């Protein structure tokens, strides 16, 4: 190789290194940048992605609930190829940072229904969600997920701001045990006691909630009644 060629190669190598350094410097080391893999599907700040079935709202969900789901995806207890792949390298500290970031985001409520339900369907959905169905041994959704349906710390998610498709799909998975959780497996019990019509009605009513529909109050949920004893999960020491 001639000296000119060697010099040219050195110049190109130095230029490439400089460009790489500039590129690294241009990417801010922030939590927002580090969760791009999440927000690319789940939407800006985790408010819900365009594929509402596959990418639900993360914003405002309890941090321990999000940590638990990362743990389930990492172990394969909860099935999703993309999530299983993404969670594999997560350390407990990193997973906690991600969970707390999304838990700290303000949630938004917008109708997430894909069709216009009848008044009868909406009335039945409201009844199931707020009162349950004692004839089938179905407790109200509000008795566990909170009177505001925004979730209860540490591990119970909010049901508002989620799409009809996502809510219904989760009930189907709970019924078939394709969505797993540590015991008590209370959602499987509830889902299997509900009729298919009630699953659809409850999901439709929940997906139609807007800000004006959400009851406001103490964000700590200190005024909520105790959870049913048969449906309390010990989440001490949650790690993915």
Quick one: overall form?
A: globular
Average pLDDT value?
81
Measured by DSSP, the beta-strand proportion falls in under 5%
Helix fraction by DSSP (H/I, runs of at least 4): 40-55%
User: What is the rounded distance between the termini?
Assistant: 54 Å
Which CATH C-level class of the largest domain is it? Mainly Alpha
- The class by helix and strand makeup works out as mainly alpha
Look at the structure and name the CATH superfamily of the largest domain: Cytochrome c-like domain
Count of DSSP E strands? Answer: 0
Catalogue the unreliable spans: 3-12
Largest sheet: none
Question: H/E order of the elements?
Answer: HHHHHHHHHHH
- CATH architecture group name of the largest domain: Orthogonal Bundle
Architecture overview:
The chain contains eleven helices and no strands. It is mostly helical. It folds into two domains: 31-107, Orthogonal Bundle (Cytochrome Bc1 Complex, Chain D, domain 2); 109-233, Cytochrome c-like domain (Cytochrome Bc1 Complex, Chain D, domain 2). Helix 4 (63-75) crosses helix 6 (92-103) and helix 7 (119-131) crosses helix 11 (196-207).
Based on the model shown, name its key terms:
disordered N terminus, Cytochrome Bc1 Complex, Chain D, domain 2, 240 residues, mainly alpha, 11 helices, 49% helix, 2 domains
Topology (SSEs and partners):
Elements: H1 3-26, H2 31-34, H3 36-42, H4 63-75, H5 81-87, H6 92-103, H7 119-131, H8 142-145, H9 164-176, H10 186-193, H11 196-207
Helix pairs in contact: 4-5, 4-6, 7-11, 9-10, 9-11
